Amino acid sequence: MAWSTREIAELADTTVRAVRHYHDVGLLEEPERRANGYKQYGVTHLIRVLRIKRLTDLGFSLSQIAAMGDADEHPADALRTLDAELAATIDRLQRIRLELGMILRQAAPTDLPPEFAPAVNAAELSDADRSFLVVMSRVLGPRGLQAFSELLRDSPTDPTDREFDDLPADADEETRQALAERLAAHLRRILAGHPGIRDVSADAPGGSRFADRTAAQALRELYNPAQLDVMVRADRLVREAEDRERG
């Protein structure tokens, strides 16, 4: 008995287009043709199409099936390889589901590591602060990320936070200096409670210099000139105060 392309496709529960594609990529031999030019498929063709269909349903690509050859024996090695790949995929998808659950429960930003979610939600971050944290989350190591997370979670809000966020780029000298002095006092309290923040880039995977350069670049792009000036002044005031205390 011989079948047409449509008939063999129906028997194999596939499509005429798929059968023709198997021919095009060399997976299925061309059958003989009738006098009228129509293809006539036999049992060997049907078995081959069924095998291709079964393997593709299991997850093999057509190139992988081609590499197995035409033999119909049990492809144990290929099946073991595919099983390992599927196990890895399942594991990855399960991790993604856990992260999605955490994000949904805690309304966390999707561009931050999931362990940052509680800290970010507890802190009142400006858009610039959050963007800076996103950048730093890509370059800091585990200890640095932990230090940032603890800082965000534990540090109380301070009036200088809002003043700094609202500082206009053309703020005058007096305003900048006054804010820097108040900010320096706030920073000293933070450093006293979170000394680990001093060496936040110590375990950065790409090295502390790269992390520091990245931080500097992010600061320059995210904050206006007056805010950057206040940061520099406050940092200088903190260092001067610490030098006086050391004697």
From TrEMBL:
<keyword id="KW-0238">DNA-binding</keyword>
<protein>
    <submittedName>
        <fullName>MerR family transcriptional regulator</fullName>
    </submittedName>
</protein>
<dbReference type="Pfam" id="PF13411">
    <property type="entry name" value="MerR_1"/>
</dbReference>
<dbReference type="InterPro" id="IPR000551">
    <property type="entry name" value="MerR-type_HTH_dom"/>
</dbReference>
<dbReference type="InterPro" id="IPR047057">
    <property type="entry name" value="MerR_fam"/>
</dbReference>
<feature type="domain" description="HTH merR-type">
    <location>
        <begin position="2"/>
        <end position="71"/>
    </location>
</feature>
<dbReference type="InterPro" id="IPR009061">
    <property type="entry name" value="DNA-bd_dom_put_sf"/>
</dbReference>
